[in-house]
């Protein structure tokens, strides 16, 4: 049997793009902002669907969120590892491949919703948002980012999204 090499095909490294409209009332942060991370409310802590907000419609209170698995976005990440109730307790450098979580802790600086802590300030599981990846060669040279003192770093995050 002769093998035939096909020249007409389509390939996507990211799979299907998943953009969904979600009502503000179903989001962890019910005052969403474009380009920010988002987490959909869930009955089980740590299992929330997460993604990046593309657009918002204040008239209908709906946000369009990109839940595409492996899509990469630039986000601010807090380097906190653990909390002691209402205070950040320990910190660590952020490195390529580190997991990043959607953190609902009230002690995070304004405009920061992602951290390297798997638990929020109340000891409740944070949902996995994605993994740190280098944005480009110049960004790759900056790792490890932060250190053992509190800091907020800008990182490219390959989001977990919805499905693989």
Task: Characterise the protein shown here.
- The chain has 164 residues and is mostly beta strands.
- The protein folds into two domains: 19-66, no CATH class; 72-159, no CATH class.
- It has one helix at 137-140; strands at residues 19-23, 37-39, 50-57, 62-66, 72-78, 80-84, 87-91, 99-102, 114-115, 128-133, 152-159.
- A five-stranded mixed β-barrel has the order 5-9-8-10-11. A four-stranded antiparallel β-sheet has the order 1-4-3-2, with no helix packed on it.
- It is globular, with a radius of gyration of 18 Å.
- The model has no long low-confidence stretch (mean pLDDT 89).
Quick description:
With 164 residues, this protein is mostly beta strands. It has one helix spanning 137-140, and strands at 19-23, 37-39, 50-57, 62-66, 72-78, 80-84, 87-91, 99-102, 114-115, 128-133, 152-159.
What keywords describe this structure?
single chain, 164 residues, 2 domains, four-stranded antiparallel beta sheet, 1 helix
How would you sum up the major sheet?
A: 5 strands, mixed, barrel
The span between the termini is 35 Å
Figure out the total of helices: 1
Question: Beta-strand percentage?
Answer: 35-45%
Q: Give the overall shape.
A: globular
Provide the helix percentage: under 10%
What do the pLDDT scores average to? 89
Poorly predicted runs are: none
Strand order of the largest sheet: 5-9-8-10-11
Number of strands: 11
SSE order, as H and E? EEEEEEEEEEHE
Decide which structural class fits the backbone: mainly beta
Tell me the count of domains. Answer: 2
Q: Tell me the radius of gyration.
A: 18 Å
């Amino acid at each position: 049997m002769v093998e035939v090499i096909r020249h007409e095909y389509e390939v996507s490294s990211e799979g299907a793009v998943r953009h969904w409209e979600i009502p503000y009332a179903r989001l962890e942060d019910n005052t969403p902002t474009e380009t920010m991370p988002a987490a959909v409310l869930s009955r089980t802590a740590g299992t929330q669907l997460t993604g990046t907000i593309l657009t918002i419609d204040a008239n209908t209170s709906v946000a369009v969120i990109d839940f595409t698995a492996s899509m990469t976005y630039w986000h601010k990440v807090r380097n906190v590892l653990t909390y002691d109730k209402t205070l950040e307790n320990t910190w660590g450098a952020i490195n390529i491949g580190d997991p990043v979580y959607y953190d609902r802790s009230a002690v995070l600086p304004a405009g920061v919703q992602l951290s390297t802590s798997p638990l929020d300030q109340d000891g409740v599981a944070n949902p996995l948002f994605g993994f740190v990846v280098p944005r480009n060669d110049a960004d790759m040279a900056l790792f490890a980012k932060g250190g053992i003192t509190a800091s907020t770093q800008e990182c490219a995050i390959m989001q977990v999204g919805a499905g693989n």
